[in-house]
Design brief:
Four copies of one chain form a homotetramer. Chain A contains five helices and five strands, in the order αββαααββαβ. In chain A, strands 2-1-4-3-5 form a five-stranded antiparallel beta sheet. At the A-C interface, loops of A face loops of C. Chains A, B, C, D: This is Heme-binding protein.
């Protein structure tokens, strides 16, 4: 029925990632989380925002995921570049219409060969905690997370 | 834990609405749908985009729901005003940054007293079919849909 | 080497489409053309602007192609809807940041099964002539053009 | 036929620059590159994005080239000013709508007298590698590259 090819993650995968990421957040008793999953082309597949999230969480979560896809590495590398190349990261944020948020919590979802199938962005608690949940979500569907740090 | 009050729909309600709306779409064998649920404050609670959706569906679905909340009536009334008051609807679209799409498929979700708890926007098939699914989703959680037509 | 999957058209296909589309334009002695090719996810693969094109041609050509992908049908159907549903098309243009130009000349490139692999947008001459060149380009690589008219 | 004068680079020159720049990238086994060529008036002449490029590469490549033309010196000088005059570069990025990316890889293409005929922007690998390819492309058509460093 569908005329568009799937580009990386399916909606079923995206939904399973969100379920597992949120479960990790509840297990760790984190602040309310917003979780966004994008396909390899940066299109939103699914999003959930837990009750009590502050206002801009969807945009921040989207920006973490989109920023990772925009340059092809996880949020930790984006954060390092925001430190070492401030002018570039400012320009990148402007180019992307704000959709490039350079902090941990934007994590690439890759297959066994390292091909990027999409990205997960989470916002709500400390960036490092957001990232833990994104990693848990990606691993729950058998994919490899890339946080921007060497393994 | 959360410091923000729930403003209308909860995430559990939003997720149940999406599940029921998509089930209706599959039952009717519609094109791939994108479903967005907003709370009473216009904040996104949840979104799902079925595999094979065309590019701008999330933005259109969001615009249908947001437009309904923006003026306080369903998409059918927005569509009528877009006919009778073109200048106003153009300005509204600009004010809203595009997030006010005046066609059927944006439906308010109300409690038994008519208090607006949120809105559902669906895009993917013909507007009238999108709307059928939004209505089904809202009814599935025991709320009253307001499509913009008198009952 | 590349970590992103190809989503529909390759660069080689996009380049061959542009070459053939421009050759058709020269054969018909048209005004200078700008040709844009997008993949199925709306990402630009290649673009060429013939010498003497007026200023906004790349943006218009991009908008024709993107608009077609945004809704999943060719520019002729977009043009019809711009007539019958003005408010919707105005809102769509706003949502898309202007990247949804509802005139002939935006043509979907499909495989034998009708799966959308990308879109071609051309601007420079009359819309109908632009479209003739887009069709020629798509056919030159063995794909099926969808202009928005029934065959 | 065309009513607009050519303003610096022709499309033939732009296409030759892209071909040579990409050949250098393949020779050096770089990441997939996106190459944009602008004329002296900042109008896009041609663009190609190699398969596997990450999402925002066309915008970044365009921003490198446009930023160079915007102030009249190559990306290395832009990068220096982004360090020494942060507020100015932030404002410049805003004024330009994001199209002023202050890093190496934006290179002016000049004639023998130093007259600026256009600019090349490349993104995909390390900035210094991107720049090597832009220089190779410009030299391949007999023009002088200006990277923003004194010779």
């Amino acid at each position: 029925m569908a005329r568009y090819p799937t580009n990386g993650l399916t909606l079923d995968q995206a939904s399973a990632i969100i379920t597992a990421a949120r479960a990790k957040g509840r297990e760790l008793n984190l602040q309310p989380l917003t979780v966004v999953v994008l396909d390899a082309g940066g299109q939103v597949k699914a999003m959930q925002r837990e009750d009590g999230s502050s206002l801009l969480r969807p945009e921040i979560a989207l920006g973490k995921a989109y920023g990772a896809l925009a340059l092809g590495f996880g949020g930790r590398e984006l954060a390092r570049r925001a430190q070492s190349m401030q002018g570039f990261m400012n320009a990148l944020s402007d180019i992307a219409g704000g959709k490039a948020v350079p902090v941990p919590g934007g994590v690439l979802a890759c297959d066994a060969n390292g091909v990027i199938l999409g990205a997960v962005g989470i916002s709500g608690d400390l960036s490092a905690q957001d990232e833990v949940c994104a990693v848990a979500g990606i691993q729950a569907v058998g994919l490899k997370p890339d946080t921007g740090d060497a393994e």
